[in-house]
Amino acid sequence: MKNSSTHLPNNSPMASESINQNHLHILMIPLLAPGHTIPMIDMAKMLAQRPNVTVTIVTTPVNAI
Fold first, then answer.
1. Would you place residue 41 in the very low, low, confident or very high pLDDT band (cuts 50, 70, 90)?
2. Which of 5, 24, 34, 43 suits 17 as a labelling partner, its CA being 20 to 30 A distant?
3. 3-class secondary structure per residue, the chain
4. SUPFAM superfamilies annotated for this entry (predicted)?
5. Interacting residues of 9 by C-beta distance below 8 A, sequence separation 6+
């Protein structure tokens, strides 16, 4: 009997992650201090240019001002 809890549909995000083991996802959260946001965005751009790398920047209404 097959365990249905381990079966993932082909369009599932977890299924795609398990197929591509060489993909790196970087989560960046800016420090709420003057002068940190722009250099962090520059670094995120540089990292995102690398193959198999995804960069996500998380912002809130407070640090998006």
1. very high
2. 43
3. CCCHHHCCCCCCHHHHHHHCCCCEEEEECCCCCCCCHHHHHHHHHHHHCCCCEEEEECCCCCCCC
4. UDP-Glycosyltransferase/glycogen phosphorylase
5. 15
